[in-house]
Amino acid sequence: MKHDGTAALLAYWNRIRGKRPAPERSEIEPGAIARQLPDIFILEQPETEPARFRLAGTRLCANHGGELKNSSFLSLWAEEDRDGVEHILQMVAGSKRAAVIDIEAKSLSGRSASFEMLLLPLANGKLIGSMIALEHAYWLGADRIIENSVRAIRMIDPRRAELQVTLKAAACAGASAYFPAPPRFASPAPSRQIRHLTVLKGGKG
Q: The domain 4-200 belongs to what CATH superfamily?
């Protein structure tokens, strides 16, 4: 993980879930993740509809030019990335693993910025995540993001995630281990293609 805010949300999620695959939505205490709240969102996945925002942080909404609650999560993405992102949501919810997505965001006037997105499972098919800018871009919040493109996707085994975050906090940046997706999506190759997206088997955050 590249941003401390991403690591902080992952550590909190790991702490409240204990030995369970995922925590309940009701267990999340906003005060415990106050610094990350402007960038945090919660998704719900109705059986017959695409994933949509149940809640979205103020900075996340401002960056995209308006309230995101009840809007489609996939609508934020480039057309060619939507099928791949939908598969990742299914993997996170179904396998109770986490995903980190490196994003290039493009604004209405053609500017671009790099973001890191974390997706974590909650009980009952919901997800919690964050989308945090990796660089200071003065125009964010004024020149709205109109499209997000995937640059890389990494799946994380939550059994190892707490150790990774602890090492990062101890100034061992880059000490992380990533794992392949669950068997129903896996292939024997070191990397996989979901349309034009490459899901990496291993790497460093």
A: PAS domain (3.30.450.20)
